[in-house]
């Protein structure tokens, strides 16, 4: 009930072009953030205004475009494994005028992260969910003090909390997500809050 009410209060103030591209992506079953989580991310970023953002999971570039819109001084580096989506993301971001503020990498995030040595002040983790625990040590290494990891879909469908039974084929995902949340909440180098917005978000600040 509360979710229906809070959903009705979402007022995304993003460019109509980005909204139209999101609608087109949804119609083609390309996974993009739900409105409520996107709203929360943009509120958070509008206050934090990070300058160096890393995104895992570009899809077709729409969350990257929205983040660039609310963080006018930011550069986004984003990683996508699917070549068709990577090509479409580059085109969308270029058409929106963001070419010089974004770096798109094509490939497996795990492999690319292990080769990166830049530092970031904000990470938007929205890639393959079962890989979150594997990515965390690399992200920790690349985060500045005070930097944030904003991980999406951490409670998916109530499976992770146990509120809804997990279908057999998704059990590994749930095990990995619980591992991710437990590691983070026990890690004394991070301050973490898990928030029941959209499909669940974990926000972790490096101390
Ligand atoms: C939920 S979508 C990202 C949505 C995007 N952040 C948005 O809201 O506009 C997750 C993306 O991660 C990509 N992905 C899956 N496995 C990956 C991997 N190992 N490395 C990099 N990207 C991966 C998928 O192809 C998919 O496009």
Question: Could you name the key traits of this structure?
Answer:
Rossmann fold, seven-stranded mixed β-sheet, single chain, 21% strand, 8 helices, globular
Task: Describe this protein's structure.
The termini are far apart. Strand 1, helix 4 (62-70) and strand 2 (75-80) form a beta-alpha-beta unit. It contains eight helices and seven strands. The model has no long low-confidence stretch (mean pLDDT 94). The protein has a seven-stranded mixed sheet with strand order 3-2-1-4-5-7-6, with helices on both faces. It has one domain (2-206): 3-Layer(aba) Sandwich (Rossmann fold), CATH 3.40.50. Helices cover 43% and strands 21% of the residues. The chain is globular, with a radius of gyration of 16 Å. With 207 residues, it is of the alpha/beta class. Bound molecules: S-adenosylmethionine. S-adenosylmethionine (SAM) is lined by residues 31-33, 57, 59, 62-63, 79-82, 85, 108-109, 126-128.
What is the correct CATH architecture?
A: 3-Layer(aba) Sandwich
Provide the helix percentage.
Answer: 40-55%
Integer-rounded radius of gyration: 16 Å
SS-derived structural category: alpha/beta
Main sheet makeup? 7 strands, mixed
> What's the CATH H-level superfamily name?
Vaccinia Virus protein VP39
Q: Helical element count?
A: 8
Unreliable stretches: none
Q: Tell me the name of the CATH class.
A: Alpha Beta
Distance between the termini: 36 Å
Strand order of the largest sheet: 3-2-1-4-5-7-6
- The total domain count is 1
What string gives the helices and strands in order? HHHEHEHEHEHEHEE
Number of strands: 7
CATH fold annotation: Rossmann fold
